[in-house]
Write a structure and sequence with these properties.
173 residues, Nucleotidyltransferase, domain 5, five-stranded mixed sheet, 5 helices, 5 strands, globular
């Protein structure tokens, strides 16, 4: 399903901020109007101390932004967790990512996990394995991405399918 939301060559980012691992993915708009895979991976290596993990998220995300200059970032929306401590730590990781994105002037859009799963798998309760396999199929990947990176790919792809067309101001995109 093509989308005309971005000019060819424009990049956008998917970000799955986690308390231990934060996945990222970069997609690019192809000349045919379809999203194309550029890169995905993890921003963190799981330091024991939370401040160091947050610092690593911020620095690694800054490097990705510097390399690709995305016009937008799709970030997983907050969900309620059974463990309040885990939810608090996840919120801090998400907050660091949002701070870095906003500081760089990148537009941020949030999607719930269910919305993302429905967009890429057809149902909101798809398993992580289903999401990963669908992303491999949709983006014609030859290697299986790590779980958190696959989630970030799904976020970026979801945004590609739902993004509004760019508004033209004075005839300039």
């Amino acid at each position: 399903m093509p989308t005309a939301s971005l000019p060819p060559g424009a990049c956008w980012l998917g970000l799955d901020p986690g308390s231990r691992k934060a996945g990222y993915a970069v997609l690019e708009m192809g000349a045919d109007g379809r999203p194309r895979y550029r890169e995905c991976g993890l921003l963190t290596s799981s330091y024991d101390q939370l401040p160091l993990r947050l610092l690593e998220i911020g620095q690694a995300l800054g490097e990705v932004l510097e390399e690709y200059h995305p016009v937008a970032a799709a970030v997983e929306d907050v969900f309620t967790a059974n463990n309040s401590r885990s939810a608090l730590i996840l919120g801090q990781a998400r907050g660091m990512a949002l701070f870095v994105l906003a500081s760089a002037g990148v537009e941020v859009v949030s999607y719930t996990p269910g919305h993302v799963k429905k967009s890429v798998c057809g149902q909101g309760r798809a398993s992580k394995l289903q999401v990963r396999r669908n992303m491999m199929h949709l983006l014609r990947l030859h290697a299986e991405p790590e779980e958190d990176a696959a989630d970030a790919l799904a976020l970026a792809y979801c945004h590609a399918m739902h993004a509004r067309p760019l508004r033209r101001v004075g005839g300039v995109p």
